[in-house]
Amino acid sequence: MLKLAIVKMTSCSGCINELLSALLEDDIRANYTLVYSTELVDSTEFREADLAFVEGSVTTRHQEEALKDLRKHVGFIVATGTCALMGGVQSLRAIGDFKPGSGDSHLGQESNEIYREPKPLDQVVKVDYGLPGCPVNADAVKTFLRKYYLGGLPVAIYDAVCSECKRRGLPCVLVAKGTPCLGPVTMSGCGALCPSFGRGCYGCYGLQFHGLNGGKVLSFAERLRELGLPDLDYRALVSAYSYAKIRDLLGGSH
Ligand code: SF4
Ligand code: SF4
Ligand code: SF4
């Protein structure tokens, strides 16, 4: 029986719902025991676990310290969801007029530092595996848990949402209707959900940065502008989920 923890940084808990769905599967329940989760288990203090799913991005100094401490007590960390992998929706503060500051901690004992730019987990600690999505896909979590228990890992597939459109035979909303769609630069995994309803992808699985470079991103932005998407909307769309990755690709120019 493997010991499992679910740890929350700054996040909306949407990924935890998907984790719960996976953990209710009979074969997974037989092989894993949840030893820590502030939302699902009546546990008071984290001690150790074989495996930790970490949801959310790091937005305070206290969280950064807690994550470093966690790293010392778990064998394997899974960055769970777009927040954990790329910063997530709270990245909007980095392109808005949010003023970073300090605040009281939960216990009111010690002041905390609040970051302007949320940090993906891998900016703070070594991450062993990542599950993209906002929220993560429960089926992907189940596959991961089943393979991990057997000593393996799912094969990483670096596709964009467009690949899923093609596999499903969906009409391309960008080509057919001129609808702005972030599918070409967004991680696959959702089954092209939005295009299947005739909508453009808004990038919730995060930037498919493998094989991308700043020039390609800027060319794609130009195409979106031609389609009528205002520049500010484009920046909010991409940076809203993947600020840290976009910043790496474009430097300070986005
Ligand atoms: S990735 Fe999305 S669903 Fe998961 S915690 Fe972040 S905002 Fe919520
Ligand atoms: S609809 Fe969007 S995701 Fe689908 S093929 Fe067209 S551009 Fe790609
Ligand atoms: S199509 Fe894009 S916005 Fe819609 S669920 Fe998939 S990744 Fe998220």
Beta-strand content estimate: 15-25%
- The fold-level CATH name of the largest domain is Rossmann fold
Radius of gyration over all CA atoms, rounded: 19 Å
| Total helical elements | 11
* Mean pLDDT level: 88
**Class per helix and strand makeup:** alpha/beta
Number of domains: 2
State the CATH architecture of the largest domain. Answer: 3-Layer(aba) Sandwich
Low-confidence stretches: none
Largest sheet: 5 strands, parallel
- Ions, cofactors, ligands: which are bound? iron/sulfur cluster
The CATH superfamily of the largest domain appears as NADH:ubiquinone oxidoreductase-like, 20kDa subunit
Number of beta strands: 8
Instruction: Give helix % range.
Output: 25-40%
- State the shape: globular
Keywords summarizing the entry:
254 residues, alpha/beta, Rossmann fold, 2 domains, five-stranded parallel β-sheet, 11 helices, 8 strands, 18% strand, globular, binds iron/sulfur cluster
Secondary-structure blueprint:
Blueprint: E1 2-8, H1 14-23, H2 26-31, E2 32-37, E3 49-55, E4 58-60, H3 61-73, E5 74-80, H4 82-86, H5 92-95, E6 102-104, E7 111-119, E8 129-131, H6 138-149, H7 161-168, H8 173-177, H9 193-196, H10 214-226, H11 231-250
Helix pairs in contact: 1-6, 10-11
Architecture overview:
By secondary structure, the protein is an alpha/beta fold. The protein folds into two domains: 2-149, 3-Layer(aba) Sandwich (Rossmann fold), CATH 3.40.50; 161-253, no CATH class. The chain has helices spanning 14-23, 26-31, 61-73, 82-86, 92-95, 138-149, 161-168, 173-177, 193-196, 214-226, 231-250, and strands spanning 2-8, 32-37, 49-55, 58-60, 74-80, 102-104, 111-119, 129-131. It is globular, with a radius of gyration of 19 Å. The chain starts with a strand and ends with a helix. Bound molecules: iron/sulfur cluster (SF4) (3 copies). One iron/sulfur cluster binds at residues 161, 186, 190, 192-194, 201-205.
